[in-house]
Amino acid sequence: MTPTKQHTSPSFRPLYEQIKVLLTQSLIAGEWHPGEAIPSEHELAARFKVSQGTVRKAIDELAAENILIRRQGKGTFVATHNEEGIKLRFLRLTAADGQKELLENQMVDFSKTKAQGDIARMLDLKAGTSVIEAKRLLTFSGRPMILDHIIIPAGPFKGITATKIQEKNGSMYSMYETEFKIRMIRAEERLKAVAADEEVSRLLGIPLHSPLLSIERVSYTYGDVPMEWRLGLCITDTHHYMNELE
Amino acid sequence: MTPTKQHTSPSFRPLYEQIKVLLTQSLIAGEWHPGEAIPSEHELAARFKVSQGTVRKAIDELAAENILIRRQGKGTFVATHNEEGIKLRFLRLTAADGQKELLENQMVDFSKTKAQGDIARMLDLKAGTSVIEAKRLLTFSGRPMILDHIIIPAGPFKGITATKIQEKNGSMYSMYETEFKIRMIRAEERLKAVAADEEVSRLLGIPLHSPLLSIERVSYTYGDVPMEWRLGLCITDTHHYMNELE
DNA sequence: GAGTGGTCTAGACCACCAA
DNA sequence: TGGTGGTCTAGACCACTCA
Questions:
Q1: Å separating the CA of residue A10 from the C1' of nucleotide D9
Q2: pLDDT digit string, tens, across residues B227-242
Q3: Residue A68 CA: distances (Å) to CA of A23, A34, A56, A106, A209
């Protein structure tokens, strides 16, 4: 599959974008695994019959999207949720004082159900498709902090169990990656403030109607395919959600 | 001031980073104004005695930081908060149904006070420095939605009045830019859920202890100098805060 | 058609890393 | 020392905009 340098416009696509697509296809096909190095820029340039600079620009963009990671002198690597420090990449909740903390994870509910309405739509599933539904309590340094409600399609995650979630100590994305070869690339979050209802206040050990930060998240794998819906209810008296605007 | 191509390392700095600094200095000095075009890449390459590709890389990064804006065929422009569509660049709150809405702005309080404790620290001011303090109510499509508490140093904003804030219909950053030549480049936000107290519930017209999304924001101008502290309390039954994670 | 940003090349050389 | 990513160049050509 050789990229074509199509000139004199009608529907012009830069070469480096075509390279980007080819690289992404290799990633999806599993040619290179998470944490591994991909071939050097020179090798890829030779393979695709383009200059090193063009490969470089393609990799630059994939690196900006956190799909690849450059390491000077060592190579370019496939991003993973498995490494220390990169774990919990999507967790924006930090303590007011910036302390490091112990994270624990307790399953509250685990069941197989059918996708309905909004959630089916957000996961791009037909209503009635089988889904796995889990509720868990996250504990920060011994204190209950987040009540998570997670829904994933049963098909791609065939064979998942409550135990598998427990084992990785709450790092779901790491588990998805190693157990199901599903890599989450990006996520969209919607935040609001809500009042704790009876069930939630009991589980989190807080008064009824306490204010909670509600974080609804849809995570996407390659090709912008939604693969997980999640609703986190967070106690935010000692913690807050950090965000940088540019 | 010619950039030096320093080779054989000790404390190596890429040429394009030096160019980036020079461009930023020109922006601070007011050589080019918001909304205006900067010189072409060729011109800048000639001025700085480097190749076009090197200037390009410097501009690329400034464009990624939303400090410059590229427009193919037209030129590269200094970013501004004044344009339609770019206005409210930092407002992440959107309606659940994505409707366009009318925004109104009503001043509740406007006074000159002294910076204290945490706020002085976050604005990088000595305790006791004069600051302007404003509270205002933002109304979306006729419904009270956000109660803003804003604090800015009095010095750089000498001559500010409640009227000036009202006039621009709530677009503070646009006003800062045109009236005080202060351009906000980026901001950090910390979100939590809180319960409405007596004053807040009265002003927003909601029951006492209703859950509110609290958005604390510090905005920075060139050189990472903090210039505004803001606390927004938002009703989030019909709206939510959107965020994209990569 | 002239001017601007955008793409692509081929090649040189540098900084960083590991063996 | 050799391989990798990172920088820089000089030049060609393309796509887009506007007069």
A1: 31
A2: 999 999 999 999 999 9
A3: 10, 9, 12, 32, 44
